[in-house]
Amino acid sequence: MYSQKIELRHLRYFVVVAEELNFSRAAERLQMAQPPLSQQIRQLEQELGVQLLERNKHSVQLTEAGKVFLADAQRLLQQVEQAITNVQQAQRGQVGQLKIGFIATAADSIVPEVLKVYRARYPRVNVSLREMLGRDQLQALKDHELHVGFLVPPGASGMQPQISMEIVQRNPLVAVLPENHALAGKQSLAVNELAEEPFILYPHTSSSVFHDLIVGECNRAGFTPIVAQEVSEIRTLLGLVAAGLGVSLIPSTVTLFRPQGIVYLPLRDSTTDYTIAMTWQHNDSSSLVQEFLAVAREVIKQLQDRES
Fold first, then answer.
1. Where is the HTH lysR-type domain (predicted)?
2. How far apart are CA 308 and CA 303, in angstroms?
3. Which residues pair with 100 in a beta bridge?
4. How many CB atoms lie within 10 A of CB 170?
5. Which of 111, 251, 93, 249 is nearest to 168 (CA)?
6. What's the pLDDT band for 291 if we cut at 50, 70, 90?
7. Which residues fall within 8 angstroms of residue 299, CB to CB, at 6 or more apart?
8. Is the dihedral of CA 297, 302, 305, 307 positive or negative?
């Protein structure tokens, strides 16, 4: 039966004595006098009801029971040290599980750069990634199912007071056309040159921010886009453009993808940026989240400096 009188110090004293097999050297290692050390070991044996050491004038030896107890005591002390290390690292945001949500276009640009640096600095943090629509990220943040999100900021009506938001990337819109399109050979386009073209868009219901961004840009150019097809994935959109089924407007970051059969053209008169924001719970002061935000800001600044 476990005795509450046995404390961690008893185990530490015993382990050092067992390793030295000499009370004088053990006392020196523990920076204490020999008589109190001998008294503590005798107290431990009394509480256990077991002789752990055989002592005589010339030597100290472990009994068979002492050898068994030594292995268990060493393992227990290592577990205690690990527990202390873990809780201290958790306090500093160095361990734990970090849940991050992101939209597809953020995964094509800023998120990989941030994660590369973060994972190198905090290898013991388990990062869980979920590709999600922006509105789903906001709900997950509200429900404490996410720690950080990367999304297109909603309009004023979609903002939530408990969510903090920080712009991390602004990308101009570009046109994407089939490579055999009559306008494909131009150096740039005015948005209204696409007024008679069939558009491939995200549906209003699944990605309304992106949908509204494109429709708003067309409206400002004096027309409502003719919607030929609706898709939910950017790679599907590019594939349908390559197949000649329509044109579209996309963030400039997507131009990193160069599938065959399409061309990207800058827009001369666009006033719209495709903006990505980093979001988190306003009152989340945990080191886990704050350390990630600090790394993200550092990486974002480096990317911005590189582009300027």
1. 6-63
2. 9
3. 129, 148
4. 12
5. 111
6. very high
7. 110, 113, 114, 117
8. negative
Q: Are strands 96-102 and 125-131 parallel, antiparallel or unpaired?
A: parallel
Over residues 30-72, the pLDDT tens digits come to: 898 989 988 988 988 888 889 999 988 778 899 998 899 999 9
Angle between helices 8-20 and 64-91 (to 10 degrees): 120
Q: Which domains does the chain have, with CATH numbers?
A: 8-91 (1.10.10.10), 96-169+275-307 (3.40.190.10), 171-274 (3.40.190.10)
Helices marked H in the chain = 8-20, 23-30, 34-48, 64-91, 104-107, 110-121, 134-142, 208-220, 234-242, 287-307
Residue 294 three-state SS: helix
Please give the model's pTM, rounded to 2 decimal places. Answer: 0.65
Residues 162-207 pLDDT 10s: 899 999 988 899 999 999 999 999 999 999 999 999 999 988 765 5
Residue with token string 């350390």: 291
Q: Rounded CA gap, 28 and 260, in Å?
A: 75
Hey, what amino acid is at 47?
Answer: E
Q: What is the spatial distance between Cα 110 and Cα 88, in angstroms, rounded to a whole number?
A: 30
Cα 278 to Cα 4, 288, 293, 307, distances in angstroms? 50, 15, 9, 19
